[in-house]
Amino acid sequence: MDNKKKIIIISAIGATIITLTTVLISVFVCFHKWSDATCNTPMTCEKCGETKGEVLQHEWVEATCKEAKHCLHCGLTDGEPLAHTWIEATCEKAKTCSVCNATEGKPLGHSVKNWKITKQTSCSADGEQVGICDRCKKECVEAINKLPHTKSNWQVKKDFIINSDGTVTAGTEAIVCVVCKAELETREYTAELTISQKNAAICAYDEINFWHCGPSFLIYSVLLDIENYPLEDAKFVVAHISVDWDEQAVLFAKENAEGSSRGSLVDEMNYYGFTKAQIDKALKEVGY
Ligand SMILES: [Zn+2]
Ligand SMILES: [Zn+2]
Ligand SMILES: [Zn+2]
Ligand SMILES: [Zn+2]
Ligand SMILES: [Zn+2]
User: Which of 9, 30, 37, 228 places its Cα 20 to 30 Å from the Cα of 275?
Assistant: First the structure.
């Protein structure tokens, strides 16, 4: 047998021995992997299940009103939670546990028998009353709700205007509180003109530019007597046309001042339907 063969045989035998040894060790010897002991089990090998040492002692946490006595590690409980230690409800605080602050129900609320009004209530402002609580003796201040407003009927806030072409520009009307004057509701205020009213209005604007007269002359002498409109329509139209009567008085005075005494100009302006105030103002304007 040559050396080469010897070496091969010896190597083969060696490899076999190593393999067998490894198999034997792995079957009969465990390289333990220990898990920690718990309250129920001692240290235990995760591979072979072998145990070592003792189970842990439970570590008890005393009962409270929220939790029963229990083990910190395994959660095992013993008995029931404690009863709450209640402090009775007061005016401002609900029934409360002095240990855990749990509450039950609602505060009682103050109990005032004799209120004294310190601020009268109205429809525009809350009132106020003060009293001592019979239970806790605290001074209590309470608002008294506003009174309801007292509604008026619809009142014109801004009159509608009848224009020179017979159209109408709406105004507004409102319901107000008769006590505090607050505006409670508003709406458009307008009118639907009859054909007679519309024509009377167009006529009134034309005539005023010719006559420069006051409102009563325009109603009675012009619209009623000359133009034959019904008195009601004449009055209605003149009440709603947009004419500056002061300005008309000045125009009238300017046109008629020449060659006229102050007295006769006043008489004339009276006749043409101007008021004393309008006449005085207009005469001042033309130098009388
Ligand atoms: Zn093991
Ligand atoms: Zn435990
Ligand atoms: Zn409690
Ligand atoms: Zn009270
Ligand atoms: Zn009011």
Answer: 228
